[in-house]
Amino acid sequence: MSIKENYNAIKNQLPSNVQLVAVSKTHPVSAVQEVYDLGQKIFGENKVQELMEKAPLLPQDIQWHVIGHLQTNKVKYIAPFIDTIQSVDSEKLLTEINKEAGKHNRKIKVLLQVKIAAEESKFGLEISEAKDLFQQCIAGNFPNVEMTGLMGMATFTDDQQQVRNEFSTLKKLFDELNQLKTLKTLSMGMSDDFPIAIECGANSVRVGSAIFGRRDYSK
Ligand SMILES: *Cc1c(COP(=O)(O)O)cnc(C)c1O
Prior knowledge:
Layout: H1 3-13, E1 19-23, H2 29-37, E2 42-45, H3 48-54, E3 63-66, H4 75-78, E4 84-88, H5 91-103, E5 108-115, H6 127-138, E6 145-153, H7 160-178, E7 185-188, H8 194-199, E8 204-207, H9 209-212
Parallel strand pairs: 1-2, 1-8, 2-3, 3-4, 4-5, 5-6, 6-7
The structure holds pyridoxal-5'-phosphate (PLP).
Pyridoxal-5'-phosphate binds next to strand 8 and helix 9.
């Protein structure tokens, strides 16, 4: 299928309250432009260098989201323009984002990335750490950060029940924190598991290969 057919098929599967982040990592500017021209405004990238190369060549009203592990020393490059950093996985990173956003007199939206997968390799905060950072946010410790929700990735497995349990764990935390301060965004679900994520309460999904096709890391 073409990018256009893929994109329209995904859009048709999403309830109207679910936001789509089109994950364009490894795909060329021309492909991003094609999806933009279909009406998509929110794109996700996981590498700062790639984002810095692409962003200037694309429409200025794109809302860029960082979705991958972000090193603190890279925050300064994206602070002037980034819309949302979905992958906040440490207090150190949040402190740096707050500092760099302040230099540009802006607020950067962030999601706290929570580790819900059983896999060892995944980045993210433990639930207790996420609660602690959340408390610090509502206490006003990071005035140049707008903490709008949570992000999580499920284990890469065919076991749908496991994926469902992991997403449900994050939804439960989201509901709990939402009692203390209203949160907008629960970002979970990718090409292979977004329908389950939506069933479990996601209102934002990050879809790459189901729109752009498979990624080629050899280039
Ligand atoms: C790459 C990536 C995605 C998109 O993955 P697909 O399986 O291609 O949809 C979503 N979220 C994160 C954090 C990613 O790194």
